[in-house]
Amino acid sequence: MSGWRKLPTAEETQAFGRALGERLRGGDLVVLTGDLGAGKTTLTQGLAEGLGVRGPITSPTFVIARVHPSLVGGPSLVHVDAYRLGGGAELDDLDLDADLDEAVTVVEWGAGLVEQLTEDRLEVLLERSGTDDPGEQARRVGLRGVGLRWDDVMYLLQDPAL
Questions:
Q1: Are strands 65-68 and 77-81 parallel, antiparallel or unpaired?
Q2: 132, pLDDT greater than 80
Q3: Shortest CA distance to 116 belongs to which of 40, 47, 31, 44?
Q4: Interval 127-144 mean pLDDT
Q5: Residue 93's CB: how many other CB atoms inside 10 A?
């Protein structure tokens, strides 16, 4: 990871996602990694707000993928949960690359599966605080940019607007 930022509450996780979503554009691939309850869907809810797409944003665990069209003339959000996918062949069946150039694609549990979709991607790692309390909302976020689009990802962690 290029760096880390503390997110003490679920609201701050959503706010970080919202500010990041305002910076995303069609063609962006965001890969979310983290344990169950780490805040992947919470962050995606913020991304969706920042993009101005139709909600509600819920975990697509059982439907695998949801498309949320823009309400403001921007890119759609394709929200994917790869947790139940058995491998690359099942990912190919989703035909994500058909929307990749125009939509913002966010893939939960996508590490090791989606890297071949594009040369540029933003990898987001969410970790819960050191406590075992499931009600604890504190977490930290780490970012790693891959490709020219995300060459200078550190500014995202240092920007006070995020």
A1: antiparallel
A2: no
A3: 31
A4: 76
A5: 10
Say if CB 106 and CB 114 are below 8 A apart. no
Specify the pLDDT at position 116: 81
Residue 47 covered by a domain:
no
User: Would 52 be classed as within a structural domain?
Assistant: no
* Structural domain contains residue 36: yes
Domain that holds residue 92: 3-42+61-101+110-133+144-158
Q: How far apart are CA 35 and CA 73, in angstroms?
A: 34
Short-list 94, 13, 79, 8, CA closest to 48: 79
* SS3 letters across the chain: CCEEEEECCHHHHHHHHHHHHCCCCCCCEEEEECCCCCCHHHHHHHHHHHHCECCCCCCCCCCCEEEECECCCCCCEEEEECCCCCCHHHHHHCCHHHCCCCCEEEEECCCCCCHHHCCCEEEEEEEECCCCCCCCCCEEEEEEEECHHHCCCHHHHHCCCC
Q: What is the pTM of this model?
A: 0.87
Taking the alpha carbons at both ends of the chain, their separation in whole angstroms is 17
